[in-house]
């Protein structure tokens, strides 16, 4: 059977009880009493309330309301003896502790109760004695009960305010840490998209042409493949150096030399060269009525979508046309890349799926939409089509 034990008194409470009892005994030995001509005239009787109140001091934190109730009874009993100043002083501490360490409801109720008791005692003794000196009894009652309760209310409010401020500071620090972690995650995702989009195209071309050079025993084909490999290696190194420079400077903005829609011609031409040996023919159509510069984030996202789509076509598309089309309807820029869908022989580069994820992330940051999947082509065949719609307002930065 589990035996419940009372909590151990706080060491400060033990010291208060010991000093209070010792002080009361010293006053009793010296014959210093508060009153005379009481019902219980034996001097030793006043030691009983003193011992009770000093014992209650041990539980001023753990059972403050019980201590106040029993202490009140002890104080009333003390009025029938010659009295002891230490008993009264320890009772004021019990009132203080009941408000400070008690329940919130008790902390609200005790000051009001002691105030009403003070007023009642003052009015009662004025009506009884009918002399102004009766006001002194009300003052003493206030000093013993109401003032300790009022002091405890002030201390408790300051303590609660300090706890609230500490909790607020901890929550602020936690939110700051969460914001920092989110910022780091977002920056890592942005740099991952940049690294994938800038380098994957070149590495895919290198992988395909190196496989062709190794598998086809033809000097002309090998020389042509090596030329494509060298070109993509140099371009990939340049892109990598630009990204490393961006990381070293710690600049979170987009690079000053970010690619734009004006660079799509060169991108498609490079893809045409890389894909020639795979039977892919790349073409570019800009059907916008008024071609012109757009906000930098929009142009960068459109360029990366085309770049990733061409890379995927180089990896997976069946021989046939690869068409890049730009259009604009109102305040929406339309980017569409289509390629033949089907099985293809010859060397191919593996895919990881990160490219589609990166495209969707870019479009989501701009508040646009994107669809990628198989659809019916104009000639009756099946094609793989990527279609993105990007808002071109200056203020768009994500949802």
Q: What's the gyration radius in Å?
A: 44 Å
Number of strands: 5
| Percentage of residues in DSSP E strands | 5-15%
State the separation between the terminal residues, measured CA to CA: 61 Å
Strand order of the largest sheet: 1-2-3-5-4
Could you give a short account of the major beta sheet? 5 strands, mixed
**By helix and strand content, what is the structural category?**
alpha+beta
Give the fraction of residues assigned to helices.
55-70%
Shape: rod-shaped
Give the topology string: H per helix, E per strand.
Answer: HHHHHHHHEHEEHEE
Number of helices: 10
Overall pLDDT level: 81
Low-confidence stretches: 252-256, 395-399
> What number of domains?
2
Q: How would you portray this structure in words?
A:
Helix content is 62%, strand content 11%. It contains ten helices and five strands, in the order H-H-H-H-H-H-H-H-E-H-E-E-H-E-E. Helix 1 runs antiparallel to helix 4 and helix 9 (296-316) runs antiparallel to helix 10 (354-365). It folds into two domains: 11-173, no CATH class; 259-399, Histidine kinase-like ATPase, C-terminal domain (Heat Shock Protein 90). Residues 252-256 and 395-399 have low confidence and may be disordered.
Q: Which properties best describe this structure?
A:
399 residues, alpha+beta, Heat Shock Protein 90, 2 domains, 5-stranded mixed beta sheet, 5 strands, 11% strand
